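re: that chain from earlier
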Amino acid sequence: MKRPVIIDRSHDDDFMREALALAAEGARLGEVPVGAVIVQNGKIIGRGFNCPISRHDPSAHAEMVAIRDAALRMENYRLPGCTLYVTLEPCSMCAGLIVHSRIQRVVYGATEPKAGVAISRGQFFSQAFLNHHVLVEGDVMAKDCSEVLSEFFRIRRLKARSGDALRSSVDG
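^ sequence. v structure.
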């Protein structure tokens, strides 16, 4: 008989704040601000933020970077009993890695209506064909996580518009 899984949610906001700090670090480098931490037994064992641009690596999403960091630190490609905190709902690529690494729980902030697969574009983690099932909880500090992304893209649009205006006056 399987023992029930006991989930401690008392520090979810604290760990999401850590993920938000990493998202801000990525934003300073010009990366889309998504951050992630892996937690085991109340301690952070992996950290990551989006860095596909700076690493020239399309797979360098925050979740991927954090999982790689945790696996190296733990010297194990499996991360049972771990929780992944990420500021944005995972995409299909990251969801596959989450299952393969045997993460127990995913806690995300903002939903990703275009590519999120926890709830937005399907419910990947609840598929019967998976050999490992992940507990998923969303909307933890969702407003804070959404605001970081919205502000990043607002500034990016402003910069693009001012660059376009400058090019027009130089060309004309």
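Residues 166-172 have pLDDT under 50 and may be disordered.
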